[in-house]
Amino acid sequence: MEEKDIPGQKAEALDNTPDAAGKEAASLNEAGPEAEAGQKAAAENGASAEATEGPESSDSGSAIDESKYSTFIVKLFPEIVVKSKPVRTRMIRILTGNIRNVFQNSGIRVKVLGNWDRVFVKVPVEVSTETASDILSRIPGIHSFSEVLSFPYSSMEDIVRTAAPLALPEITGRTFCVRAKRKGQETFTSVELERSLGEALWETGKSAGVSLKKPQITIHVEVDGKRFYLLSNTRKGIGGYPLSTQEDVLSLISGGFDSGVSSFDFIRRGARVHYCFFNMGGREHEIGVREEAHFIWKKYGSSHRVKFFAVPFEDVVGEILEKIDHHLMGVVLKRMMMRAAAKIAEKEGIKALVTGESVGQVSSQTITNLSVIDRVTPVLILRPLITMDKQDIIDKCREIGTEELAAAMPEYCGVISQ
Distance of CA 360 to CAs 193, 221, 366, Å? Predict the structure, then answer.
């Protein structure tokens, strides 16, 4: 059997509406021209159009009315912190733009203030903490985030007087410790602040005692020379790098467990993930796969536009079943897919393909067969799940929210690869 060119793929933009799976072509953006401009600039320049040039960025030069906003402090993914100054500055700039875009796609206008080691996100008070936290927990590049109260101060004693009553409800009936971070020149050290605030809380008699090693609650205080911040309700983000800080990739998505997880892994690592689907099961197959791709994009990557390529492959599968020896069918099918996907990638300027393959999972995924498949194209093929067990992949599906969609999807490749 001859390996042919792409049968006639169609490219469509994922849409921000619930019925996107059934649409022929649609715009990604539901937030209007302003957010669209920001996304285009991010794609062209590696940063959001709304972000400023320096690491310390602000949405406007005017003073912010703090009474109208709830504030969150965002901690950067640790691998960002160790980057060189130019790279770190660029990543922070992109992250601030991504945060704005994702909130704006949900109809929420936020103020984002970035500096060298953290980002402040000011959310309108009418937006619930749960809604804001859910959005922040899904943005790549965020290691953790906390609700924060901010106050001016004139001395360490001023900080203790203000912070102790606010922290008291948190430590009542619990063991606790105080952790402080200080920036700039002060007349007191971080340790001295920890001791003073800890002593004030302990003397109330409301706590179950001080525990420096395994406290039930930790009171976090940060001081920057102008204001101090009292942090609470710290939550984990998904980590990784801000979206678009890495080059684009094309993910071969089947709608099953594996390809959804591999797509998520590259979104988390900061790559804008486009999707390539080989249709072997008709319209219903395409609708199901498009639904999963849209879910992953909407939940984790909606700060940027992506494309969904659908390639009709039923005739190709029929020819393989008719002409190819049973033992070679899986490898030939994968070579045909890689060859077609590589042509799409080259046309779109995408440098790498992503698959959900794992060593030994099916016959086409032995090391020898993977090597044969790779040789069909010079385009780089990345396999983030290569050593993962199937159960670990399913567990990850459950974690990112695609398990139900993947479980309902027939495995068409399994007809050939066993």
Answer: 56, 50, 5
* Per-residue pLDDT at 49: 30
β partners of residue 179: 220
Question: How much is the pLDDT for 411?
Answer: 66
**Helices (H), ranges, 269-366:** 282-300, 314-323, 329-348
Q: Is the pLDDT of residue 62 over 70?
A: no
Residue 350: count other Cβ atoms within 10 Å of its Cβ: 24
Which range among 30-34, 213-217, 284-288, 319-323 shows the weakest confidence by mean pLDDT? 30-34
Count the Cβ atoms, other than its own, within 10 Å of residue 56: 12
For 363, counting Cβ atoms within 10 Å of its Cβ (0-12 exposed, 13-18 middle, 19+ buried), the class is: middle
Q: Is the pLDDT of residue 4 over 90?
A: no
Percentage of the chain surpassing pLDDT 90? 70
Tokens of 78: 């640790």
Average pLDDT over residues 60-82: 83
Q: What is the dihedral of CA 80, 82, 86, 90, to 10 degrees?
A: 10
Which one, of 169, 173, 149, lies nearest residue 159 by Cα? 149
E strands in 5-48: 10-13
**Is residue 157 within a helix (H) or strand (E), and if so which, with residue range?**
helix 156-171
Token digits of residue 346: 């080259």
Name the one residue in this structure whose structure tokens are 């033992």: 327
Considering just the CA atoms, what is the radius of gyration of the chain in Å? 25
The DSSP element (H or E) to which 88 belongs, if any, is helix 85-105
Give the count of alpha carbons within 13 A of 313, CB side only: 29
Nearest alpha-carbon partner for 127 in 50, 59, 71? 71
